[in-house]
Write a structure and sequence with these properties.
By secondary structure, the chain is mainly alpha-helical. The protein has one domain. The chain is built from 7 helices and no strands. Helix 2 runs parallel beside helix 6 and helix 4 packs antiparallel against helix 6. The chain starts with 18 loop residues before the first helix and ends with a helix.
């Protein structure tokens, strides 16, 4: 599992795992598990909250106002943190028609270009998301009464975590490319 390149290879052939790559891969796997647990807990809270809202509205004829707001804000955080959580295992949708037809060296270059563009985009999201979060910090949500800055903080937090996972994947030598078998098969091979 550590240093493996069979399912997440950049097409350049297998490389012997160095201690640095093995540590990066172990850390990425651990961080991915933490993020998955966090996202799972948030989804559980969302599900309970939405069920409570439905029961309140249709059974008791009085839905709590905070439940819809909480579930909406949790969905934002789930999306942004989940983005980082699925990166290493190739869980993001991708169109690989060109990549599949390139020789291994050209495919590797294309993956590097992709990663550089992704890091640049994530840096912009982090920068402007932090500014937006700071700017919105003075406003409060309608029913929960928390600062909107906390909601908008999902943007820079998610972008930073995603960039960090990308760097870890590169250090580990696995540029998160799902195989033709699909993401489910990649997950079961670990």
């Amino acid at each position: 599992m550590i240093g493996r390149t069979d399912t997440l290879s950049d097409g350049c052939g297998a490389r012997a795992p160095s201690p640095r790559r093995a540590r990066a891969d172990r850390f990425a796997i651990g961080l991915e598990r933490v993020l998955d647990a966090l996202v799972g807990a948030m989804i559980l809270v969302m599900a309970v909250t939405v069920c409570w809202q439905v029961v309140g509205r249709y059974v008791f004829d009085s839905a709590p106002g905070w439940s819809e707001e909480l579930s909406r804000y949790l969905m934002i955080w789930v999306t942004m943190i989940g983005c980082a959580g699925v990166l290493r295992r190739g869980g993001h949708m991708s169109v690989t028609a060109l990549l599949d037809r390139l020789p291994p060296a050209a495919a590797s270059v294309l993956l590097w270009v992709r990663d550089i563009c992704l890091v640049a985009t994530l840096a912009l999201l982090t920068w402007y998301g932090a500014q937006l979060s700071t700017m919105m910090g003075a406003q409060q949500t309608a029913t929960l009464g928390i600062s909107k800055g906390w909601i908008y903080a999902a943007i820079p937090v998610g972008a930073t975590l995603t960039a960090f996972m990308l760097v870890l994947a590169r250090i580990a030598g696995a540029p998160f490319r799902a195989t033709e078998e699909g993401t489910e098969d990649v997950l079961h091979k670990e």
